[in-house]
């Protein structure tokens, strides 16, 4: 077995051992070349930082191809008709749109994520983070994921959308999101698809009913704002709201939990000053390093719309590339000999955990605000935070995280 074959064999996204630590396999892939055909998913794996960064900005690739080709023209089969509710919801969302539709909707939605808007949210985010951490501390610990990391971003997005706390559906937001996001894993099962379809229908029905209420009684929330934009269809409004929830909390939750696992399992704490409040700049630097070191979204896929060439390999139109964010963020060619080292003071840190190009994460400033608020409160209120049990990982590779993180204070 040569180096390339060994590298391909080491990449096993359905293996619990690989999911727990994919980074040695990434190093093998980087050493073996710049583009690797991976038969089980029929994708080209791209592991190097320079290539991933460039391809995220390359308009010869796209999140979809239907703005230019039919399924037949592109050499692909149409999605299963039984999965139509999921695809209707997903295909009208900003993340999977290209061309004029993407430009139009991103311009409209970006108004909700201006620096001023995010800064105006800061007091609310910090208050929520302080209250959640205080509850965990009062109980002597518990599940950091369920008690702190997950409730904060879900509550923030729910507030932005104007989902009332009195609605029973608020408690279903994260389960709906989890079921929908299951379809972003590699080769999802039919049961995963059924759950995603059911969640897509239920979430969409709830949003239609909520929009009907907002038409009669508009507020200052994002849903009311979207209703006031005639250029948007109802499906685009619904898909936008679902995407904001899904994208607005999955990365934040997993970065927070993966980050604290990294710190607690190593007995490391960020050096963020000696005063009563963590130094904002030092804390921000530490959070960026945690985003790089253990990337919450390990892979981002693109369709090849026109032939491209990577390292002498021609990848034809109709193929799919898998951009390995986790590998790119550990590439010594960009991050030097300490690429595999956790350095919470790393100053030069252009990680790509939020993507790049036209699909750069719109909510990145909000995610950074939420993460720094969570870490600040845990450092302040729980200086003796420690692991209470070895955590169990979720089986997913693309969106990589833990089922829980039990801690004591």
Short description:
With 409 residues, the protein is α+β, with helices and mostly antiparallel strands.
* Helix-residue proportion: 40-55%
CATH homologous superfamily identity = Cytochrome P450
Tally of separate domains: 1
Strand order of the largest sheet: 1-2-8-5-3
Description:
The protein is of the alpha+beta class and 409 residues long. The chain has one domain: Orthogonal Bundle (Cytochrome p450), CATH 1.10.630.10. The chain contains 17 helices and ten strands. It has helices at residues 3-10, 16-20, 23-32, 49-56, 84-91, 99-109, 115-138, 144-149, 151-161, 173-181, 190-216, 222-227, 234-266, 280-293, 325-328, 332-335, 364-381; strands spanning 36-38, 43-46, 61-62, 141-143, 299-304, 308-310, 313-315, 320-324, 386-387, 406-408. The strands form three sheets. It has a five-stranded mixed sheet, sandwiched between helices. Strand 6 (308-310) and strand 7 (313-315) form a beta hairpin. Helix 1 (3-10) runs antiparallel to helix 3 and helix 14 crosses helix 17. The longest helix has 33 residues, at 234-266.
